[in-house]
Structures are given as C-alpha cells and as structure tokens.
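Please, structure for the following, as tokens.
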Amino acid sequence: MHSNHLLLEEPIRMATILEPSKASFSAMTKIVGTLGPRSRSVEVISSCLKAGMSVARFDSSWGDAENHQETLENLRTAIKSTKKLCAVMLDTVGAEMQVVNKRETAITLKLDDKVTLTPDQGQEATNEVLPINFAGLAKAVKKGDTIFVGQYLFTGSETTSVWLEVDEVKGDDVVCLIKNSATLAGSLFTLHASQIRIDLPTLTEKDKEVISSWGVKNKIDFLSLSYTRHAEDVREAREFLSKLGDLSQTQIFAKIENVEGLTHFDEILQEADGIILSRGNLGIDLPPEKVFLFQKSAVYKCNMAGKPAVVTRVVDSMTDNLRPTRAEATDVANAVLDGCDAILLGAETLRGLYPVETISTVGKICAEAEKVFNQDQYFKRTVKFVGEPMTHLESIASSAVRAALKVKASVIICFTSSGRAARLIAKYRPTMPVLSVVIPRLKTNQLKWSFSGAFEARQSLIVRGLFPLLADPRHPVSSMSFPISYSQYSVPSRDVKESNNMIRIRIPIYFLSFPISYIYIFF
C-alpha cells in the first residue's frame, strides 16, 4: 500500500475555498448514469447528458427488453438534439440471488422475528416466507452465517434492507433471525450471502439471451460483468462476445462484488478492459474498516495498468434528497483523488427523485477535486512504475504529457484509429483535456464495406480526461480537412482567443492510412 494515494497539492489558502468556482472544462472524471423509471424520457436524458453523463448504463435486472429499447431510442434522440456523445453499458444479472415478490406488496420485517427463505417460487412473499431463485442456498450456508436482503443493500438508511442471521437449515429452506426492522418494497430484492461461495454461473443463460438479442441489436459499447470471481469468467465472456459480430469490439468491465473477486483481483485485471468496484455488495463482504483499503489499492493497480477504474455507491442519499451528505461529498472527492476514472450512479438515477441534480452535483465535486489533484506526483509515480525501457508508444504518450505541462497547454489533441494512443496519454493524467480524434477506417467482412471508429470513440467516454471526436468519413480527403462530429468542448481560457472559450475544430489530415498516432499540443 502506497502512502501517496491522496494526491493533494499544497498549500491551499483557506479563503479560496469560499470563492465561487470558475467556469471551465467539464470534469475530467466521467459519470455513468443508470437509466430507468425516473430517467427514461427524452427530456430527462437530455438534461442528464448536459449535466455530464457520458455513459448510459442499462441494468438487465430491471425492466424487460422492450422497456430498455424504448429508453435507448430516447437516449439516441437526446444525443442528436444535444450533440453530446454517450456510450451504452449493459449490466448483467450474473450470479445474483433474488427474492421474488410477485404481488409487489410491501413486506414489513420486524427485529427478532424469524423468516424462512425457500426455493419454492410458487409461494407468496410474506413477512414469514421469502421465495428465492436459487435452490442451493441451504447447502451453502450454516447456522450463524449472515444474509442481506434489499433493493439496494444497506444504503445507510436501514429501513429498506434487512440483515438476517441463519438460525437453522430445514431441507431446502433456510430459517433466519431478523436483525433489524425493515420494509421491503418492489417486485425484486437482491439477496447476498456474506463471504459465501454461491454455485451460480457468472454469465447466466438469461444474460446470454439478453446480450445476443438486445446487445447485438444495439451494438453495446461496454459489458458490465456482474459478480466476476475469476479471470476465466472474463475469458468466457469475451469468447461469447467474439461470436456475436460487432460485439467482438465490446469492452468487458469486471464487476468486483465479493471476496472471491477481490482474492483474484490481479488476474482479473489482466483479462478485463476495466474494473467496476461494486462497493454495495463488496462493502457487505468486507469489514467496514477495510473497504477504503481495497478501493485505494484497486484503483492504484488500475491506474498503473492503464485501465479504467469505476467506483460505485457514492451518493446513495440523493436517491431521495436534493443534496448529498457531507460524508458522501467527501467520498466522491476522495475517489477522484485516489485516481478513479468514473463514478457510477445506480439507484440515484434509476429510481431517484433527482437524477439530473445528482449528476450535476457529482460532476461539480469531481471538478473541484481535480483542481487539487497532484498531477506531478502522480506522473512521477507512474513513470517509475512503468520503468525502462518503455515501449515506443508509452514513451511518446508520457513525453507528450510532460511537454504539455511544461508549456501550460490548454488541450492535447491526439489523432488515433484504435484509441490506444489517446488512452495512454490519459493514463498519465494531464491537467488539460485530451481530445481524441478518432479517424475512421474502411473495413469489410467480405459481404459489405463499413467504417470503424464509432466503437473506439464511444469507449473513450469512460476514461478520465479523454474526450473523443469522431471524424466524418464522408468528407473528401483531398480537401485536406473535414468536420469533426461532436466537436464542441469548452476549453479553459489561457491563450485561446475564441469567443465563449469554445473551439470548433477543422483539422487537416494528411495520412489517413498511415499507422501512426499524431499528437498536437494546443496552447
């Protein structure tokens, strides 16, 4: 564990804290918003995009394919109207145990009462019996084990999730003692057995069906692989995607949700394209005093590997409140100072009362934290970790960042076809935005010709500090310039003279097919 994880520049004059924040480039840290009942209209999604959402997450645990498709169509309409690029992430159900409440009536559980968990889904959910979707629970648990049930487990207000202690096992049923009073509302609740291995596949048949139908149809950019426990889980998912046409380009983010995934973290990181630290379930498996230690260590490993780290469950209280708690606001800032690439919002935007305000608030906190991020210390640490000799591309990327810092550049512009060079630049966390100009390439599958580039551009939207621009392939190359799609970004005003601090980019391209990434530094 490194002592310099808190990358805070000194000194800070206390009086400056009270000064109004100056308008500047949007936060470098990205925001993943989960779309659902409260955030599926064109108007709300448009507001979410304007507030800072760059990745839209679709949770396959909620709603059906038809519902998600309608929401996605609304997202596409919002993207066109706002001219804000947004990626799509599909979250799998995975090895998740669930309580089924067919009648959707509220269930009140009282302290010291007993409730039975049964695999008989024909029974109605009551305060005495809770039917579950897993028949092997009785074989996996023993007296004294801990089980949690709720929509979103233990948000801090313990009236919506319940803590159970296994009292006895009767055949396939598990009788539990209720450790806190709670009211469960809704049709589906998550059930989590703390530090107990559950014999369920990471990629279930239901997941495969959703991916091969809805996922293929909509060419999802990211797959959030829930309950990743081994590197083999990622390899199996990648093999499955490779057989689904365009989804072979889909990036896999391993979601670490239990002690088993934590134990195999290093090997999972090697296989995955990014990591999601699911602090909800993981925070139950780990002692409270150990959660921060895992977060800092995991984010550090992701940073050094140059792979995005996404942190979840930061402003749970904003599901019902307009402002976060002081602890939550500090938690968001600390995640940024730790080096995370993105903040993932779940219930806050899925069913929360203030989805737009939540995204805006989180974005403002991220932007403030980034102002005091000690980039110099981070840069030196990263270079030391990479060591020598560097690869040519890594050397170019690190040198570009160093040069940009020395001349106090306003922006770094990188031409790329795969996005790899731009991601390497972002790995070194420059203080200025990195505009990744993705050059489309003509490709064929022997049946038809098409342009690549859309996947690569959208997949940059989860990387901290990286802002993609997709070049328009329809413009004649002979003119030596072409328009850039989604090209309006606000740039901090130093030597930039354009009105309203906006730059509209028309960039000359001389070598569309030459396999070199060009890096321009604007100052």
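The first strand starts at residue 30 and ends at 34. Residues 65-82 form the longest helix (18 residues).
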